[in-house]
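hi!! sorry for the late reply, been swamped w classes. u asked for the two structures so here they r. pasted raw, havent cleaned anything up. first the sequence of the first protein and right below it the tokens
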Amino acid sequence: MFNNKDPEKLINEWLADVDSFALPSDNDIPSREYENKLIAWLDVLGMSKKILDSGESNTGAEEILTNIGKLRNCVESSCLYMIKQNKLDYIQLNDGFIIVSELEYIDELCEIICEIQWKILIDIKLLIRGAVTAGQIIVSSDLKIIIGPAFINALKMENEVAIFPRILFSEKIYQYIKKEDIEFPYIKEDIDHLKYLDYLKYEYDLEDNYINFDNKLKVFGIKKLLKKYYTDNIMENNNIAQKYGWVIKKLSDLKIKIIQ
């Protein structure tokens, strides 16, 4: 049965309480020095389980490949303008993406990540979790290898700290934004005091009014999807329910009601 607890209360209770990748061989490691870069790690939630399930049952491989291709298209189309200007690179690792850029492009990267999160929600009906940080990194010229402590830090933030489908910002990045007086109003502080990228408010503000945004969520089936995954899992799988509950709460803050 459906748990009638208010989603916001449930999320507050939850708050109270990586994909693997192949390591490069010695011969593959570029003979270059580390560079200080801006790095974002984006992980698509739920895709890894689908990949594992398709392997065990030997079914659904074609659908997985299709969705992986769609993910790449979403990311590439959002990054294309910056890539053409040689301001940004990205690497795909299965269902995850690493985006690397210079620190000075933090505001442009924030806009790109907002767009990516929204496209993947609307077009593929999946949620993203990740982290943005900065530090030492090396990216090979063919964009096939990335190594460095900044990448490891971003992975750990996403895997161990983010919990909900949100993109976290390291304290180093946030302090840089404040110091440089960069104005990107969609970096918010969550209830657990962590800084995250509010892509839903970003997309909300792109619409002319509340009604347009609400209708878009209905047309693309997002309201129905969020309600289904939340209610279906609240009694059986709290880990999944809390992720959809977090999105429901953020939409509620925008006066968008998913559960009446």
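now the second protein. again sequence first, tokens right under
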Amino acid sequence: MKAEYINPFVLASFSVLEMVVGNRPTKGEMSVLPKTFPSDQCNIVCGISGQLHGQVIYGMSLLTADSIASAMLGTKVKSFDMLAASAIGELGNMITGNAMQLLSESGYECDITPPSIVRGTNVNFNTLSVAAILVPLMSDHGQISLTIGLSERK
């Protein structure tokens, strides 16, 4: 996968997380995931279509999701309810939307699907024929696993 597909998501993640939770994350070492890989406890899944297609998954523990949702909502989240899920979904939507703008500036016109929240510990994702790149992002709220699986439409 080309770096020009990955960098917009990393830059957008830095910008949005700093804006909504007041803390700029740091980037860990990137790695290639196998075609099938386990989910985190809480995952935001955004589909991408257009010149690039595939998906982006923002995975995290429930503690991290609760902490981020609390920061976004301005009140302590005691359990991951519908309001917390809405906040976390919006986080994925904001990051992906900002990344789409950066991709557009590089000449890639793409659309995103509304975010889906996938929770559970016995869930596996499969990116089919698209290689997935994992970029760990560490913040004061915990780690977010940014997984990007995109390819250019022929």
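hope this helps!! also noticed smth abt the second:
Residues 3-152 form a domain with the Chemotaxis protein chec fold (CATH 3.40.1550.10).
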